[in-house]
Amino acid sequence: MTSQLRVSLQSALTFWLILLLCGTTASAAETGPTADVLMQRGLSAAEQGNLDRALVDWKAAAELYDQAGQAKGHLQALFHAAYAARALGHVNQAFLQQELALQLARRIGDPQWLALTLSELGKTYVTSHQYGTAADYLSQAEVIARTKNLGSLSAALRNDLGIVLALQGRLPEALTAFQDSAAGAAEEAVRDLFVRARVNAARVAMQLKRFDEAAAALSEAADRLSATVVSHNKADGLINLALGYRDLATDQPDEHARWLRRSAALLQEAAAMAEESGGQRLASYAYGHLGHLYEGEHRLDEALQLTRRAVFAAQSAGAPESLYRWQWQSGRLLTRQGNLDRALSAYQEAAATLQPIRAEVAFSSHGSLDPARQSIRSLYFELADLLLQRAALMTEDSEAGLYLKAARDAIEAYKAAELRDYFRDDCVDQMQARVTKLDAVSPETAIIYPIIFSDRTELLVSFPDGLRRHSVPVTAAALTAEIRSFRRLLEKRTTREYLPHAQQLYDWLLRPLLEDIRKLQVNTLVFVPDGPLRTIPMSALHDGTQFLIAQYAVAMTPGLDLTDPRPINRTKAHLLSSGLTQAVQGFPPLPHVAEEMAHLNSVFTGEQLLDSNFVTPRLEGELKDGRYNILHIATHGRFATDVNESFLLTFDDRLTMTQLERLVGLLRFRQDPLELLTLSACQTGIGDDRAALGLAGIAVKAGARSALATLWFINDEASSELVSEFYRQLRDSSISKAHALRIAQLKVLSGQLYEHPAYWSAFLLLNNWL
Question: pLDDT tens digits for 158-172?
């Protein structure tokens, strides 16, 4: 199993649980008919795939039950509302409702409800990629269910726990959990769960290369499913089983034709059954997956016909999480047939359908572990590639420019979704709602937008006179390898081994642009990096004679739509500086921080919190005052793959990114929000693109216009010297923040002690550079 695996947000198990819960809803006489009607209406909406409507009804029911003092009804409504919120991608809302539901479940003392609430909380943590926490909650729930002899629930929870174990890569344990779940389901005569658990076990067995065992598990599931009456759940089970055979066909080339025929037959049966029962959402999956099988067999006309039926069914069901997949598949098929115009329309429709859907919905499938799921990254990059192809066919520059901008916008949409998924909240949407486009911000700035394809690297560059394109024949694999070597060797302060890599990256990423840069007299380069490019400082690229920073100010932003381009108001600058000099919590001391903070407070008026005064309550108290528009934090910090493991060290605790957002958010709704957030002594891991994504987005997360942060921990004295000079230059209103950083870096570079780029290039200016 891999990161491609996702827990379904509308699994047959969840559907079964909802039916079970509705069966236990308090009677109308006890709780009032209005709340009961809302609960049933919400269930009907959920069954039809209208989770927005269901969420509204269940939240209203929860309020009515609460007003009537009916704790159990309140709990049930919260449980359902949390499920809908999670399925719609509103994870924070789901957490709030589930935490309240958990309190109610503990107060009521009903073990079944306590187990169910713990399990749903665990599933929401899965959606947030917090697999360890998810496993803890699901394990607690399973112990309660087993202890209280809730056999069906215990079996279902073992299946859910198996999913989490698979996501963690603990395949043997996952296989055992699925086997135990199937045994429990058989004992309790829960056929749908038995089928799902056996298919899940088959998929894990395939990952373990135990193909005979996988085939046997699928055969057992098929036998049990054949004895089931025609129903919505049976159609869902047939699709799940078909995808299991599809995967087996891929893993067993000698049996490919046999298993593929089996998969196709099951999908055809599922489609007919779904159509008969009016289940258009399931019909869309059956037709769509069948079309995908034909696509793999190069039967493009038949594949396209089936895919169109899938699109129609998804539209009829109002199921965007299904619809975008089949619109995307249509685009791929039309591209392979050479019909670029219709393909482009299909891709654009898929992107438009996907845009309002949160990442959790986009990553979910129809209800199974599916290691063949495609990343939504592929959709946006395939769309951008197609737009670039169309641009190349245009004879007029103005027409080509429209396609180039559309290609850039497609990648921009993906970057926003990626950042939203990393931080798991709406900070990206809030930023996008209040910024303006960057294209015409500064006549002396070039915005460089690299797009890394598997076979080449495209450079889209916004110059003052328009957008231009340069295609570089370097593959994603070659570029990534060069970046990894550069980053690793750049941190070795005693050698110049980094230099050949710095020059190679310069030749690929900068040299094709030099003629335009010089002709237009550009003095600032703003990079919008993708993937591994986020992990390196562009300022340290080298032309064979000098570093890039010697000629240009350099800044970085995670996305064009995420940068507020207004310049800082230097006349109103008020600084809050905070940091550590002492060794705390196992981290080494930072003795030069005191000197650094003293210098900053001599440049800008403000307050400081040092050592024992640098604690969260004091920081919050100062920020509540609202006087500050510059926040400087000099402390150890780490950006990790998982945002929950990212932190800034305080004297007695660790400040998470969510806590930082909450604190800085105290300034967000003033007329003048936070202008600059500086984080020195932070670090990200070499080769950790996702951690670097968190660093790149920190200004967005915190609601600051700009951030200055480090990619790796550097010498305390060098950091202090560089930061002090940056703030000294920042007082000059004629100098942009990007140029203030350039001057500071050049000052450190010019000294013999710290001339190596390991000392000065780690500092990145993020977002607003003016």
Answer: 999 999 999 999 999
